[in-house]
Design a protein that fits this description.
- The protein is an alpha+beta fold.
- It has one domain.
- The protein is built from two helices and four strands, in the order αβββαβ.
- A four-stranded antiparallel sheet has the order 3-2-1-4, covered by helices on one side.
- A hairpin with a 5-residue loop joins β2 (63-74) and β3 (80-89).
- The chain is elongated, with a radius of gyration of 19 Å.
């Protein structure tokens, strides 16, 4: 009886953790797509070419943030500009695996989106 109850409790805990991770990724994708839209709206497509958009999770001064970067290149001058948006996130919302990666580096790439010019 206790053995079965233990498995049920473990399953419920696993489902709660899994649900939190799914929520994190869904929220991250929604935020990333929204910020990418803002960045792309600011690009002068007649003059610039955009490459991939990369979303990161990072830490700075003990705070956790999400950041999206888009590299653009001016068609005439060849000058490359990095456009980005950053927003703080609650450390408790970040999956443990990503937090472990942040122990050894300040940012980790979590998503890449190809941009079609």
């Amino acid at each position: 009886m206790y053995h079965i109850a233990g498995w049920i409790i473990a399953g419920l805990i696993g489902a709660a953790i899994g649900g939190a991770v799914v929520y994190f990724w869904d929220d991250l994708k929604e935020w990333s797509n929204r910020m990418l839209g803002y960045i792309l709206d600011a690009i002068d497509w007649a003059l610039e070419i955009a490459s991939d958009a990369i979303t990161y999770i990072g830490t700075e001064l003990g705070r956790v943030y999400r950041k999206i970067k888009v590299w653009t290149k001016n068609r005439r001058t060849g000058k490359i500009v990095v456009r980005s948006e950053t927003e703080p996130v609650n450390r408790n919302d970040v999956p443990a695996e990503i937090l472990r990666q942040l122990d050894s580096r300040s940012e980790t790439e979590v998503m890449r989106t190809s941009i079609r010019n």
